[in-house]
């Protein structure tokens, strides 16, 4: 394009920046290019590309937020990737994720405290813990899902990491927060309950340790498959408003199915807290190997067989804006 006329030059600039922004720059006397007093429409000494770069710098400067907090956020959003990574550290990561970790801690504490509380009456029927855990899971997903995804379970977090939805370092922090929350919730329940507090842990019932681990793997695998299905639906744009109900009812049903055999932990943190405060047993490994193994196998099956295209997902470690289940909420705010 020849820049022999003013109209041609305006058309050139208009192709690269909105007219409104161009007029705003011009009205403030900043539409400069080349030597002092030489307007952008005079291209005698500089190339068109150089003028375009100068104009873009002025537009960027004018759009810079006024407040310090807004400027800091603007710099973080516009900072080149390498520079952003160089400025990031463990402290910055923890500050950005404190809401998610605190939400996981509180949600897991509520889950254990309220769920295990149904076991206080002697010989309580299986329906008590099954419904209690199911309804608390349902409520916590609605309450904390926007902040952290409301995993409340290291096995669910493992499934999210294997599916590429959360960084592995974040998954480790989630598991620690969940274990801490479960311990705090169970400790609070012991502190306010009668002295004759029953054993709140889980132990194999009529089956041996190996069979119990297999049962726990099957139960937790079913839970992981449900989570993967919900995430897949959200990837396809089909956000399910009843996801929390489905998840809660599934937890209740799985406890009904596996309760007589293993106690239906489905959650390593749920079994760890009572064991830590009341004493570990020789079979405690069952409630780590079973749920974590079942969740891992189920996630890989769903990823490579049910949804083969998921294997091509960009790893979460390469994504700067973390997306979390179950509602796929952004945390970089």
TrEMBL record:
Superkingdom per UniProt: Eukaryota
PANTHER family, A to Z: AQUAPORIN TRANSPORTER (PTHR19139), ENTOMOGLYCEROPORIN 1-RELATED (PTHR19139:SF270)
Listed SUPFAM superfamilies: Aquaporin-like (SSF81338)
Membrane topology: Multi-pass membrane protein
Native species: Leptosia nina
GO cellular component terms listed in the entry, alphabetical order: plasma membrane
Residue runs in coiled coils: none
Example GO molecular function: channel activity
Lineage of source species: Eukaryota, Metazoa, Ecdysozoa, Arthropoda, Hexapoda
Major site of localization recorded for this protein: membrane
Segments traversing the membrane: 97-120, 126-147, 168-192, 212-233, 245-265, 285-306
Subcellular location, record wording: Membrane
Homology family: Belongs to the MIP/aquaporin (TC 1.A.8) family.
Keyword annotations of the record: Membrane, Transmembrane, Transmembrane helix, Transport
Protein name: Aquaporin
Xref: Pfam families: MIP (PF00230)
């Amino acid at each position: 394009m020849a820049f022999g006329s003013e109209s041609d030059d305006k058309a050139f600039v208009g192709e690269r920046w909105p007219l409104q922004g161009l007029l705003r720059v011009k009205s403030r006397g900043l539409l400069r290019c080349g030597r002092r007093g030489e307007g952008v429409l005079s291209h005698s000494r500089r190339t068109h590309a150089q003028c375009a770069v100068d104009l873009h710098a002025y537009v960027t400067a004018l759009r810079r937020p006024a407040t310090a907090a807004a400027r800091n956020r603007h710099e973080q959003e516009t900072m080149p990737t390498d520079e952003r990574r160089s400025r990031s550290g463990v402290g910055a990561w923890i500050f950005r994720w404190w809401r998610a970790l605190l939400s996981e801690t509180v949600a897991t504490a509520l889950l254990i405290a309220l769920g295990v509380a149904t076991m206080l009456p002697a010989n309580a029927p299986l329906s008590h813990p099954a419904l209690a855990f199911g309804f608390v899971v349902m409520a916590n997903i609605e309450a904390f899902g926007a902040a952290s995804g409301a995993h409340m379970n290291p096995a669910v977090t493992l499934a999210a990491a294997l599916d590429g939805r959360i960084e592995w370092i974040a998954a480790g922090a989630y598991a620690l927060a969940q274990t801490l929350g479960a311990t705090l919730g169970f400790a609070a329940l012991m502190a306010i309950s009668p002295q004759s507090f029953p054993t709140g842990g889980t132990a194999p019932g009529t089956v041996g340790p190996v069979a119990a681990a297999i049962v726990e793997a099957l139960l937790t695998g079913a839970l992981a498959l449900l989570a993967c299905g919900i995430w897949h639906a959200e990837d396809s744009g089909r956000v399910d408003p009843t996801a929390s109900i489905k998840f809660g009812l599934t937890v209740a049903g799985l406890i009904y199915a596996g309760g007589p055999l293993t106690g239906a932990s489905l959650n390593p943190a749920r079994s760890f807290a009572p064991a830590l405060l009341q004493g570990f047993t020789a079979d405690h490994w069952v409630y780590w190997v079973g749920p974590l193994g079942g969740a891992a196998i189920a996630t890989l099956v769903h990823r490579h067989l049910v949804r083969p295209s998921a294997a091509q997902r960009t790893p979460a470690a390469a994504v700067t804006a973390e997306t979390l289940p179950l509602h796929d909420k952004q945390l970089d705010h």
